[in-house]
Amino acid sequence: MAELTKYQRSIVKNYYDNLDTALVQRLGEQVTDLYLAEGKKRAKLWESVANSLAKVGVPQKRIDRVVASDDARQLATLLQELWAKD
User: Fold this and answer.
1) From residue 63, how far is each of 8, 11, 68 by CA, in Å?
2) Which of the four pLDDT bands, split at 50, 70 and 90, describes residue 83?
3) What 8-state DSSP symbol labels residue 5?
4) Helix or strand or coil: residue 41?
5) Which secondary-structure segment (H or E) carries 22?
6) 19-66: per-residue pLDDT in tens?
7) Are 31 and 76 in contact, with CB atoms under 8 Å apart?
8) Structural domain spans, the chain
9) 38-46: long-range contacts at Cβ-Cβ below 8 A with a sequence spacing of 24 or more?
């Protein structure tokens, strides 16, 4: 594998530095999608939300509680807390 150039290293570093912000923004988009989704698509979205929340560092108990509720409003409340941290 080739060595990364200085420019490429800076791009990779910036990506990982801003990963939390990108994940929180993505979660915001998923809240909207959850309000509109039904059936299998909704279940798939909740899986994706759970994975994103774990990457952001939300405790597993809290993730399980929000996902089990199947309530997009609880996710929106959690998202507001995450935005307040940043």
Assistant:
1) 35, 31, 8
2) confident
3) P
4) helix
5) helix 19-36
6) 888 888 888 899 999 989 899 999 999 999 999 999 888 999 999 999
7) yes
8) 6-85
9) 42/70, 46/70
